[in-house]
Design brief:
The protein has 2 domains: 6-73 and 106-173 and 284-363, FAD/NAD(P)-binding domain (3-Layer(bba) Sandwich), CATH 3.50.50.60; 175-282, D-Amino Acid Oxidase, Chain A, domain 2. Helices cover 36% and strands 24% of the residues. It has 380 residues and is α/β, with parallel strands linked by helices. A hairpin with a 5-residue loop joins strand 14 (212-218) and strand 15. The mean pLDDT is 91. It has a 7-stranded mixed beta sheet, with helices on both faces. Strands 7-2-1-11-17 form a 5-stranded parallel beta sheet, with helices on one face. It is built from 13 helices and 17 strands.
Length: 380
């Protein structure tokens, strides 16, 4: 087919994977991102790359060997701890399992890997989309806050949870899951916070009970990222008359909620190096599907935002990006490519989102300690 004008909105793992694979096959795609630069914002915690999704996409993008240089196979360790700090289950990956399983990588490292693989100026930083205007025949004009516009034969919505491109195909909006994470962190943890580092292990530590919990993740560079979780109203801090910027007040409120939990776990609240960031968790309704719309499609969170208890978000986004790229490479028209891609995307995303909803409801339930232990014992 004639080379289409392709615009990818959002420079996350899914959009960048799509752009990379297209470039390998001589097809140019422009990526537009609202951030002023690649370094303006921390990209978050760590990801485990699954063989049939994230790893597959990395291989398709020709980045597998580069990924292995930064991956942390030891990060697959999964530890479950009781509310008093006792280790209930410790699933440690075999030493030989260095390139198999689900090795971990920091989100920022993964994004840099993808960005560095693209030709210069593929990503147009500082382009915040205001709206997309349909021009007919599947063509859209994209309007940005700086007053510039661009026309595209295909607009790929890789713009995350609050996607503006989603509005072109669907009225669905993310809904609050009932669970909020308060993120905190620990620097040089092995030397500055040795007890917390030991409790966390090399991978992920979870302590979940009675609608509350801690999820601690080992990141690279000696950093541990912790999510203090609770099933609560989205505006819990307003009910408690707490300003989120008031570190001491947030700390004291969290400590009250976790009354009776073990002292080591409570240290994840009190010993913070980074303060607290409120992160209510949202998900799209399940199932989320849309009618075929010429010249537009979605990938990643824009298509299937789900709770992090699936472990599938970034993996599915990258698989989406790889499958969409191959559909464009192998189809006679853009419209045929969208049809072929969405036939793959929608069934698997519905299944994954359903599993994620079950996962968060099990993790934050009155009997979550029993449910999660039973699940982990069965799967490790």
């Amino acid at each position: 087919m004639p080379t289409p004008r392709i615009a990818i909105i959002g420079a996350g793992p899914g959009g960048l994977t799509c752009a990379r694979i297209l470039q390998q096959h001589g097809i140019t795609a422009a990526v537009y991102d609202l951030d002023a630069s690649r370094t303006v914002r921390n990209q978050g915690g760590t990801l485990d790359m699954h063989p049939d999704s994230g790893q597959h996409a990395l291989r398709e993008a020709g980045l597998w060997d580069a990924f292995l240089l930064q991956a942390r196979p030891e990060g697959q360790q999964m530890r479950l701890v009781s509310r008093d700090g006792r280790i209930l289950l410790d699933a440690i990956p075999p030493e030989a399992d260095t390139t198999e399983g689900n090795p971990e990588i920091d989100r920022g490292q993964l994004r840099d890997l993808l960005l560095d693989s693209l030709t210069p100026d593929t990503v147009r930083w500082g382009h915040k989309l205001t709206h997309a205007e349909a021009l007919g025949n599947g063509t859209h004009r994209l309007h940005f806050t700086d007053g510039t516009t661009t026309d595209a034969d295909l607009v790929i919505g890789a713009d995350g949870a609050w996607s503006k491109i989603r509005r072109l195909v669907s009225d669905a909006a993310p809904l609050y899951t009932g669970v909020t994470f308060v993120e905190t962190g620990f620097n040089n943890a092995d030397t500055r916070h040795p007890r917390l580092a030991e409790l966390t292990g090399n991978g992920t530590m979870m302590a979940l009970d009675d609608n509350l919990g801690f999820v601690a993740q080992r990141n690279s560079g000696g950093h541990i990222r912790v999510y203090v979780g609770m099933r609560t109203d989205e505006d819990w801090y307003e009910h408690a008359d707490v300003a989120l910027a008031d570190t001491a007040a947030v700390r004291d409120t969290l400590l009250k909620k976790f009354t009776g939990w073990g002292p080591d776990l409570l240290d994840f609240i009190t010993h913070t190096d980074t303060g607290y960031t409120n992160r209510p968790l949202f998900a799209l309704p399940v199932p989320h599907a849309w009618a075929h719309t010429p010249g537009v499609t979605l990938l990643g969170d824009a298509a299937h935002l789900m709770s992090p208890f699936s472990g599938m978000g970034a993996n599915l986004a990258m698989l989406d990006g790889a499958d969409l790229a191959h559909a464009l490479i192998n189809s006679p028209t853009v419209d045929d490519a969208i049809h072929a891609y969405e036939a793959l995307l929608q069934p698997r995303s519905v299944a994954a989102a359903g599993g994620a909803a079950e996962g968060i409801n099990s993790a934050f339930a009155p009997d979550s300690a029993t449910q999660v232990l039973a699940h982990m014992t069965q799967h490790h």
